[in-house]
Design brief:
Radius of gyration: 34 Å
Number of helices: 11
Number of strands: 7
Order of helices and strands: HEEHHHHEHHEEHHEEHH
Strand content: 5-15%
Helix content: 40-55%
Structural class: alpha+beta
CATH class of one domain: Alpha Beta
Length: 296
């Protein structure tokens, strides 16, 4: 109960973040202590969002303090069991900081200067120049299918619309499917994997190329359902991937290349500027290398 009262008080104080109370840094209030490490009241700022109830505030503060204690306990154990060499992290910390600073600068530079507009002409040119890189690893199809209850009264109408190449009216099928189909897919403008199709509609295919050449429409009964599938187009495995499937991928490749070129130009420019200003000097014949060669 005593701890609860303290936590309620802390939660109330945390809710006052931004007030003059937290501006008094000369007398820090200690909230918790673990192996000589201290958690201060000011460390709790931001733990509790505004307009949080007192009880929720208590839970948040309590969880934060417990998490801090667990971290300090683990840190204490690690420090007591690692060698001095393992604990000397100055170089790693410096390298991490340097990498983070460079990454942040490069990210901001890209955000400010990178041209993100990729024209259709650029995409098509890249596609034509790199067709050998765009190869299918599975058979793709453009297809429409419906799965109906075997007793569906509209089966003949579906059969006519699906099988007659001059009467495939997707808008009518879309409306009909909403009312009568158990499952349907009518987007014949997009490619899907053949194995994705057969995982939903269990068509028996023994020779993929022969089957797709001979069958533009198939209708068969499966358990208590009737399945109808219409093939609009197909691409066999190891065919060249059509541009429409690679457009987003190519756009990403072009933007990645632009990023690299932008960063390379920036690095080269900074290097030449530093060289011109004699900002660096390379020393050759360092003793460490000479001694090593002498020993050999």
């Amino acid at each position: 109960m005593k701890r609860l009262g303290v936590l309620i008080g802390l939660a109330f104080l945390v809710l006052l973040q931004g007030c003059d109370f937290f501006e008094k840094k000369s007398k820090e209030v200690v909230v918790a202590e673990c192996y000589g490490k201290y958690l201060y009241e000011s460390d709790l700022q931001g733990v509790v969002p505004k307009n949080t109830s007192i009880m929720d505030s208590v839970h948040r503060v309590n969880a934060f303090i417990d998490s801090w204690i667990q971290r300090q306990v683990l840190l204490h154990q690690a420090e007591n069991n690692l060698s001095k060499e393992d604990l000397d992290l100055k170089k790693q910390v410096e390298e991490y900081r340097n990498s983070l600073v460079i990454y942040t600068y490069e990210t901001k530079l890209i955000d400010q200067r990178l041209d993100t507009i990729v024209s259709e002409e650029e995409i098509e040119a890249y596609y034509e120049e790199n067709k050998d890189s765009f190869q299918l690893h599975t058979t793709m199809v453009k297809v429409a299918y419906v799965i109906l209850d075997e007793n569906c009264k509209q089966k003949d109408l579906f059969n006519k619309l699906m099988s007659d190449r001059d009467t495939l009216m997707l808008q009518n099928l879309d409306v009909l499917s909403t009312y009568y189909a158990v499952k349907s897919y009518l987007d014949v403008d997009n490619w899907i994997r053949l194995d994705e199709l057969t995982s939903i509609v269990p068509i028996e295919i023994f020779n993929v190329e022969s089957f797709l050449k001979k069958n533009k429409f198939v209708c068969f009964d499966w358990n208590e359902y009737t399945c109808m599938v219409r093939f609009e187009d197909y691409l066999l495995e190891e065919s060249v991937t059509p541009l429409e499937m690679e457009r987003d991928n190519i756009r990403s490749i072009i933007l990645t290349r632009r990023k690299k070129e932008l960063l390379d130009r920036m690095k080269a420019s900074l290097y030449e500027k530093a060289k011109k200003n004699q900002a660096f000097e390379v020393y050759v014949g360092m003793p460490a290398f000479n001694n090593q060669n002498d020993n050999e």
